[in-house]
Amino acid sequence: MSQSPIETPTQPPYPLPETPTRPLIPTIPPTVTRPPKPSPIPSPTPTATPIPTPLPLPPSSFYALWAENFPEGQGSVLWLADPRDIGSRREVLRFDRDAIIEATLSPNGRKLALVTTYWKTSTLWVANADGTDLRQFDQSLSPPLEIRGLSWSRDSRMLAYVGFVDGEQTIIDKAGTPVVEPALLDTIELLDVTTGQKQHLVEVNPNEALFVIGWSTNGRELYYVRREIGYGYGLWVIDRISREAHKIISLDNEPILPFLSPDGSKLLIATYKGLSWVSTDGREKVNIPITRPERGYQAIWSPNSSEIIIGQADEQRPVEYVKAINVHTLAVREIGTFEGRRWRFLSISPDYHWLASYQYYTGLHWIYLPTGMMVPVPCPPDGYCIFVAWVPRMKAGQ
């Protein structure tokens, strides 16, 4: 099976306190309460934030695809550009009022799946990679619940995500009497983007939750995290043909989302106690040596699944060290150093030249790892940007 050169990000990070007391590792985001419905506002022009001048580097082999979100109700734009020259950016898709909160490119690079929100509605869209043929496939009208966790199948035909279905829950009223009330239940939906047919894969009880992780190597099994009342968090797998599901491991009641390796064979688990990877059948586990993990670190998969990219800040100076650790031999390879603290790694380009990273004070950046040079991604005041994918230069049409 050929390896897709596309990496997919997590959700945009939430601000942390001025002085962190725990590692900056990805956690399940809290529910967000949306503000009152805004009044109509004309479509915005592209941000007036100064565009960085081109870096004195050769053209990149991979282009950056990202979304720029304007303040609530003012829309969003999906951009594509050489990371060394954001001024060359090209508009791929624009929404006049919706914000793009999640987006992912299919493994074959031909389709885009997006979740947008406006006021109390989240909507699932699929479009061609060039922004044409935009189609709506699903919608949630039940705030603050939002469609989330987009994951393409390896053949780029199916899209898994977390949606919601009507159900019931039993509560105890003030008199101590059981009362049955309507409730929305988390479900994992499987969408055929060609035919538009949709089916429920997994459904949970009231007050439980689901989080999609990704697809197995053979493309038949889907991994997900399930939060169960009284049992904490567990990593599960379901066969999309037979519908048989079972738990692989428990996650020690920590709301941590494991990262699936690009080849679908391993899961990376980062906790406050340390870092490890687990085979997707649960039979093999390897602890990754990290110096003082309680002080914070970053960890993501390399594009070819053979290494884990680690970032740790210097304890004395505002410097971040980036290294790669081989998943089998644990051999360490230095990649680069750059300035600043409290970075959140999102994705490294397949040629190891560029790192998409988010800093909680200054926003989204492209970092050129051989030299540590940084390209700040322009975002509007009171808006935010999210990284989507690294796109091969040839597929970017350049």
Summarize the structure.
This protein has no helices and 28 strands.
Structure summary, number of beta strands: 28
Q: CATH superfamily name of the domain at 98-255?
A: TolB, C-terminal domain
What is the overall shape?
Answer: globular
Determine the fraction of residues in helical runs and give it as a percent range: under 10%
Biggest sheet strand order reads: 3-2-1-28
Give the averaged pLDDT, no decimals.
Answer: 81
Do you know the CATH topology of the domain at 98-255? Neuraminidase
How is the main sheet built?
Answer: 4 strands, antiparallel
What's the level 1 CATH class of the domain at 98-255?
Mainly Beta
How many angstroms separate the termini? 26 Å
Q: Structural class of the secondary structure composition?
A: mainly beta
Radius of gyration: 21 Å
Q: SSE order in H/E notation?
A: EEEEEEEEEEEEEEEEEEEEEEEEEEEE
**Total helical segments:** 0
Beta-strand percentage?
over 45%
CATH architecture of the domain at 98-255: 6 Propeller
Question: Low-confidence runs (pLDDT<50, min 5 residues)?
Answer: 1-48
Describe the overall structure.
With 398 residues, the chain is mostly beta strands. The chain is 0% helix and 48% strand. It has strands at residues 62-69, 76-81, 90-95, 99-105, 111-118, 121-128, 135-140, 148-152, 158-172, 178-192, 198-203, 209-215, 221-228, 232-239, 245-250, 259-260, 266-270, 275-279, 285-288, 298-301, 307-313, 319-326, 332-339, 343-348, 354-359, 363-368, 373-376, 384-392. The strands form seven sheets. Strands 3-2-1-28 form a four-stranded antiparallel β-sheet, with no helix packed on it. A four-stranded antiparallel β-sheet has the order 4-5-6-7, with no helix packed on it. It has a four-stranded antiparallel β-sheet with strand order 8-9-10-11, with no helix packed on it. It is globular, with a radius of gyration of 21 Å.
